[in-house]
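Check this:
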Amino acid sequence: MIKAPENTYFPQHFYREVNKDTVARRKITVFRARLDGLSEVKTMGKEQLEFYDVKSKKKFKTTDYRIVNKGGRMFAVTKSQSGTHECWRVVSKDFAAKNK
């Protein structure tokens, strides 16, 4: 068993692997997972919305959208992940006011 270094960010059970390469890969994976968590915290200003791309027939989630008022109806608009077109989604007026 590998002993955990002093002042480590990872718990002792993390170092049970004998192969040092495996431990290094595991560290990187945990670090990336924590970075992903931080990126989600950073974008907490807007709620995550799920859009449906009609051209590619796929759903995707994003927090990168803008609110558009068109004909008294509120829409969230974002760029498609699979092309240059935009994807639109109807949202409530309360949601639009909160996430503008």
Notes: The beta strands are 49-53, 58-62, 66-70, 73-79, 86-91. The chain is about 30% helix and 30% strand. The mean pLDDT is 75. The first helix runs from residue 20 to 42.
